[in-house]
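quick one, 229 residues, struct below
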Amino acid sequence: MAAIGVVIGGGLRAEAPALLVKAVSQWDAGRKDLAFTQHAKTLDDNGGEKKTWVERYDPSLPDNQRWKLIELNGKAPGQAERAKWEKKKNDRPRKKAVKSLAEYLDLEHAKVLEENADSTRFEIGLRPEAARLVAVDKLSVIVTVDKAQGDITHIAALLREPMKIALGLAKVTDLDFDIHIDSDTDEKKEGDAGGDVKAGSTAKLVLSKFGDPVEYRWSDFKRVTAYGS
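---
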């Protein structure tokens, strides 16, 4: 498989698979932001639900509208309750991606897990520079790339054991990503990164912070252009 040098921050690094570099570059060049529905719940010591809520996040909307509360403890929230919740969420600064995907993924040491005539599946670790945020040795990203278009068509994550994040203040105990992306070749435009996220794609994370486990599930993904872009 062809390999090329990866240039990060002006320096040439070791060789990485050319197909993977192309796919990540096309992803970075396309619409980066995702809208999604977030299902969350806090758990008690026995795994029972203490509090549940459902929200919709859409970064294509203005900052004061990007988070919307849909459900709280199994019921539709009242107008005042929703307004208070949404104001608190939307008053937080918008998080912006300041680095490309290639700056987080260790492309040079990617492993080929499976290859056929149509696609190649890679296992990719995180760069050591990310160690301050996560325990990089505990996590790998599994990426499938379409050979014809050079697009990422599937993203998954592999968590080998519980992982500390946020400088050790929190711990991820369960992680499950299963994101499928349409190639959408008929409607693909120059600079785009392929089609939208397929229906049925899901992601899940169980996070323990200060002794309170919280489970997050994400669904109904849609790739969007960030407001103001």
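Helices lie at 18-29, 79-90.
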